[in-house]
Write a structure and sequence with these properties.
It is built from six helices and seven strands; from the N terminus they run E-H-E-H-E-E-H-E-E-H-E-H-H. It has 197 residues and is of the alpha/beta class. A hairpin with a 4-residue loop joins strand 5 and strand 6. Helix 3 packs across helix 4.
Length: 197
């Protein structure tokens, strides 16, 4: 008897995550969730990003009609000197983060979580990105493009911000927003294959 493939739901509004899932040939339905992104006192960046991914997956499952399906939640954040690099609050905050990363290496933590209501599984992937020296003028011009305004750390490696990157180690897709190798491994645990083309 052939086992049916569970339907996947993506609990994320990120167009980047939608593109990455589609890239590996996994059909899915997007569901909207609203999970507060507030770091608890004493919570490590690693614990924070994993908790957010799991919270989003669980919130997505709670939003489903019935209980059929598997929900994917994910979160990505940057870390520099132990500080979490959030989405910029405004231009000043965005410029402050980019100046801090200028000429230095920062970490990107990306977590992906899946739940089917019976279990919740999570993987954490760490990557490292090094920037060249950035001038105040180009930081200002970059902000004016609009690209950094909704990005964790205030830049997009898959977009215009790529010109800042000297080197990267780890998972490129994780830096974009969804670690595909870890995602494929998790999907396999829930009997959802990639390349369903």
């Amino acid at each position: 008897m052939i086992q049916s493939i569970p339907h996947l739901y993506l609990a994320s509004g990120s167009p980047r995550r939608r593109e990455l899932l589609a890239q590996i040939g996994v059909p899915f339905t997007r569901i909207k969730v609203d999970v507060p992104e507030v770091r608890a006192a004493g919570e490590t960046p690693e614990a924070y990003v994993q908790r957010l991914a799991e919270d989003k997956a669980r919130a997505g499952l709670a939003a489903l009609p019935g209980d059929a399906g598997v929900v994917l939640g994910a979160d990505t954040l940057g870390v520099l000197d132990g500080q979490v690099l959030e989405k910029p609050r405004d231009q000043g905050h965005g410029a402050q983060m980019l100046r801090a990363m200028s000429g230095r290496e920062h970490r990107i933590l990306s977590a992906v979580a899946l739940t089917d209501g019976q279990r919740c599984s999570c993987r954490l992937v760490e990557s490292r990105v090094r920037f060249r020296e950035l001038s105040d003028g180009e930081i200002s011009r970059y902000w004016e493009t609009g690209e950094p305004q909704d990005k964790a750390g205030g830049y997009a490696i898959q977009g215009l911000g790529a010109v800042f990157v000297v080197s990267m180690s780890g998972s490129y897709s994780a830096v974009v927003g969804l670690p595909l190798e870890a995602t494929a491994a998790l999907l396999a645990e829930y009997n959802i294959p990639v390349w369903q083309i």
